[in-house]
Amino acid sequence: MAASTFLDDLPDDKSEARLSARVPARVKEVIKLAAELSGATETQFMAQAAYHAAQQVIEQERIVRLSKADTATFLDMLDNPPAPNRKLKSAIAAYKESDLNAER
Prior knowledge:
The chain has helices spanning 25-38, 42-61, 68-79, 86-97. It is mainly alpha-helical and 104 residues long.
């Protein structure tokens, strides 16, 4: 099964919205040529290219990269968590008394 993406979580919206941009004439000419070569309109080409780039940025930002040493430290902390300190104990007590506590 493929991993869920941010876009999968968005509602299925059939409505349309306008998006426009001012670009240098040379950029427009390159987009026009690329659109013609791919058999799309300039609008279709720009929308597809922007959508694809946006998906890549969103997915890249969801990935956490750690060095080997950081990975080892992270896994060790999961296996051997530190004892709760005063601030954590206080936060737990406050949560138990709050409306956010589903067990209340």
